[in-house]
Hints:
Blueprint: H1 6-16, H2 31-38, H3 46-62, H4 71-75, H5 78-90, H6 97-110, H7 113-129, H8 133-149, H9 156-169, H10 173-189, H11 193-209, H12 213-226, H13 234-247, H14 251-264, H15 272-286, H16 290-307, H17 312-325, H18 329-345, H19 349-365, H20 369-385, H21 389-405, H22 409-421
Amino acid sequence: MNFMTPGEKVRKLRIQLNLTQEDLQAEKLTRGLISMIETDRRDVTYSTAVKLAEEFNQKAEELNVLMNIDEAYLMRSPKQDAEIYCFNRLKNEDITQSTIDEIFELISEYDLLEVKAKTYFKLGEISEDKKNYDEACINYDKAIIIYKDISKDKELGYVYLRLGSCKGKSVRHDTAVVYFNLSQYYSFTYGDKNTEGLSLYNLANAYKHLNKIDLALETVEKYLTISDKEDYYYNYGLNIKAQCYEAKENYDKAIEIYKDLLEENPDNENPILGYVYNNLGLNYCHKNDFKESIKYFDMAEKFRREKDKANLGVTLIEKATVLLKQNSADEAISTVKLGLKYVSEYNNIEYLISGNYILANIYNKLADSKNLEKTYLEIVECLKFNKESNRLRYVYNDLVIFYLNENKLEMCKKYALLSKELE
Length: 423
């Protein structure tokens, strides 16, 4: 891609419109000045650019040619044009690798550092969409480093938000909290209200996952206070609030919030309904009201099969809890296994782990040592793949007890040592 100097632009447009240098002469715009501009011996000033743009547009109109030349175009350097070109290319949602390669070539040729940061951010988004969260984090990190180097701190709030989101999706909620707090700081500092709200929402969710329920409640209340009911995540914020009350075993309060959400969202297409039905099922299960629990889990399953396939596995796995309470172990196992199939397909790491733990608990109660061992090892592989060392240590300890009960002392010793290494 070739980008012209201001002088080259003036000369090309003049020739294209069949104008001479004399034709462009005006007050304080002599033929000699035009000649020096065209050979890049003089800069195009704002007043000169305005006069030239008027002449070019007038001639183009006479020729019935649509050009819309403005003074900004005539004054821009090749580097500035290359930067604009790259920014426009990066807006393409279906950007290809060849386009990315072209942009990096221009970055190298013109030293386009802000473009480089935005390109790494775009690569982070692409990786995140593909659920390659580690790769996404690497690219977001590169973007952050460049933005800091070029003092574009205003951009950091949103990048830290995306970085925290990737950490949360890969079940690293403690690290996610750090990044969401950084997002809070930068978005508040630079008045980015939208990112500030999103970071609060995600921070509350991370605290909930870490079982810091009071912090989660405090944070989600802040989010709900600064948000409008029309905001996309407002209902999901109420969902987090209800989950916090569930964690506090205040099931009636959680159910009240969910019932209010149902009344406020009569639209059967709203994806929040999948969460509401699912979590009503959980709360009625906690209250041992199995009839109501199954009713809402069935509603959640139907809704998600039709409109939210990505979260169907979550409903199936959590539905198994009520089946277990009803002593339907075989049905619970088949339901969890089907749920694991879906969460694996959609790379939902959180429920891939929790679903296998539910299976392990069932096999443990059934004294099915063969399947219990197999399930523990599945959890190990999942945690190792996602570098979850803290949780890995707990499952190693579970395996120590398992092999001790099985009188497999060498295996018991092996996992005791592996657990010790993670301390």
